[in-house]
Amino acid sequence: MVKLVMVRHGESIANALNQYTGWSDVGLTQEGIVQAHKAAEQLEGLYFDHVHTSVLKRAIMSAYIIQDELNLNYVPITKTWRLNERHYGALRGQNKDVTRREFGMEQVHQWRRSFYSIPPRLTQPDPNIGPYKYFGPEIMPRAESLYQAYQRIIPYYVDNVGPRLLDGKNQLIVAHGSTIRALIKYIENINDKDIDGVEVANGKPLIYEFDDKLNIVNNNRMKK
Ligand SMILES: O=C(O)[C@@H](CO)OP(=O)(O)O
After folding, report:
1. Which pLDDT does position 136 carry in this prediction?
2. 9 an active-site residue?
3. Which are the contacts of 172, defined by CB distance < 8 A and separation ≥ 6?
4. How high is the pLDDT of residue 133?
5. How far apart are the C-alpha atoms of 172 and 38, rounded to whole Å?
6. Is 50 designated active site?
7. Among residues 78, 74, 67, 53, which one has the least CA distance to residue 174?
8. Atom of ligand 1 nearest to the CA of 96
9. What dotted CATH number matches 2-223?
10. Among residues 52, 85, 144, 176, which one is catalytic?
């Protein structure tokens, strides 16, 4: 049976500081590096035909650690902005507890977990265009709801991951909390409301086994 494994990056510096991150490009903490190694331990013996990650270094570094631990450094890796974390707009860099005090628990919960809620937008375009310069400014959001992020994430999955799975080739995605929530919503056909309750932990591999029509035969998500 073919396998899809999705891993959220190890703890980032912003995670440790309890800050909104989104498209901010922050590195891993020591704990995050350990978590990526532990994720790889759980995948020992698995072969992946292709690795997919974002253009953000916390995911890329986690993917490299996993590939290295599995001795799969030679396996092709695609880094795409489409797998970036949901853009947190003007919230990025702010402490989540501070925003809870300022805006209330319910508003923060909506911003963080509702499918349609859009965080406050950046007033100026993002100056960090390095990884995005070949695509033009139109791909760079000023904030995204999970719904908006879903619109850019799922086409990547449908074009680049699904066909390889149908071909019987295991795939590894190393990405972000909300990126993986969007993918879980699509793969498990979860409705817009119930996706609010889905959480993805750092460095805990989600393993899906599919039949040859990509029906889910097994997955370990609810056991996490
Ligand atoms: O800050 C972020 O980008 C995300 C993931 O770390 O946080 P949250 O879980 O609050 O959506």
Report:
1. 79
2. yes
3. 5, 6, 7, 43, 48, 50, 51, 52, 63, 66
4. 86
5. 15
6. no
7. 53
8. 10
9. 3.40.50.1240
10. 85
Q: What is the pLDDT of residue 224?
A: 60
Element (DSSP H or E) covering residue 98: helix 96-103
Whether ligand 1 lies within 6 angstroms of the CB of 89 is answered as no
Say which residue the tokens 């899809």 belong to. Answer: 4
- φ/ψ of 214, rounded to 5, equals 65, 30
Point out the annotated binding site for substrate. 8-15, 21-22, 58, 85-88, 96, 112-113
> Can you tell me the ipTM of this complex?
0.95
The pLDDT, as a whole number, for residue 96 is 98
Give the type of residue at 127: P
Quickly tell me which residue has 């508003």 as its tokens.
Answer: 107
Answer for the pair 86, 141: CB distance below 8 angstroms, yes or no.
Answer: no
Dihedral angle computed from the Cα positions of residues 34, 84, 56 and 76, in that order, rounded to the nearest 10 degrees = 80
Span 92-132, pLDDT tens digits:
999 999 999 999 999 999 999 999 999 999 998 888 888 89
